[in-house]
Design a protein that fits this description.
Helices cover 32% and strands 26% of the residues. A hairpin with a 3-residue loop joins strand 10 (209-213) and strand 11 (217-221). It has 225 residues and is α+β, with helices and mostly antiparallel strands. It has helices at 103-110, 118-141, 146-160, 164-173, 175-190; strands at residues 2-6, 21-23, 28-34, 37-43, 46-52, 57-60, 65-70, 75-80, 91-93, 209-213, 217-221.
């Protein structure tokens, strides 16, 4: 989970907002808490624009290319699936194909050094946003439509393939373990056992990081499960 203040940086098409990208195995949900805007999405079903106003909940599944547009003070609580996999590389930006050839080339165009001065981090974040918008424009305007999107999906999958073992371990210890625990609790209740209820706990958390330059805006990040 994170709190997101969507970038208000202008783009070449006159809109303001973040970096278009796709998630390969994680669903995502937006809970809009302030301002107004939209999320542009591109799937094999076509291009759509979903308005975002306070109270809107928008969600989409893996494979959905999405771009946030800020029309004035857009703030969102973002919920991501799978125990931090998005932060472990599940998101791939819609860079032009020549930047998607291998992990090193991709990293050179997308990495923001954590120890760089803030002005330099902002410069890099804006430059990669604009580069991703160029690739996104090509996807939207491609004459072969779904095939261009499928080619991007294949390139994204090839980029992350070296990390899949790490992702599987994170999934196994996180989301899969949580689902298995629920199954065990259901089994106990079926047997009339309630011992697990005695282990109830309450937790609270403040953001572990404020104002990180994310793909779509400045992030306040929460680490807890």
């Amino acid at each position: 989970m994170s709190h997101l203040c969507v970038y208000d940086w202008p783009a070449a098409d006159g809109l303001h907002g973040g970096t278009p990208h796709v998630h390969l195995v994680c669903s995502e949900a937006y809970v809009v808490t302030g301002g107004r805007g939209a999320v542009q999405t591109l799937t094999t079903s076509g291009y759509e624009v979903t308005p975002l106003v306070p109270g809107t909940v928008a969600r989409f599944t893996p494979g959905t290319v999405h771009r946030l547009v800020n029309e004035g003070g857009l703030r969102i609580t973002v919920l991501m699936q799978n125990s931090g996999l998005p932060e472990a590389g599940d998101a791939v930006l819609t860079l032009p194909p020549e930047h998607l050839t291998d992990p090193e080339t991709y990293a050179a165009a997308t990495t923001i050094p954590a120890d760089a001065p803030e002005a330099e981090r902002e410069r890099i974040a804006r430059a990669r946003r604009d580069l991703a918008l160029e690739g996104y424009r090509r996807l939207r305007e491609a004459a072969d439509g779904p095939e261009a999107l499928a080619a991007f999906h294949r390139a994204a999958a090839a980029l992350v393939r070296p990390r899949l073992a790490e992702w599987r371990e994170r999934w196994r210890n996180g989301a899969a373990a949580a689902a298995a625990a629920t199954g065990e609790q259901l089994d106990r209740l079926e047997r009339g056992e309630t011992s697990h209820l005695a282990d109830a706990v309450v937790r609270s958390e403040q953001p572990s990081e404020h104002g990180r330059f994310g793909m779509c805006g400045r992030l306040d990040v929460y680490r807890g499960g």
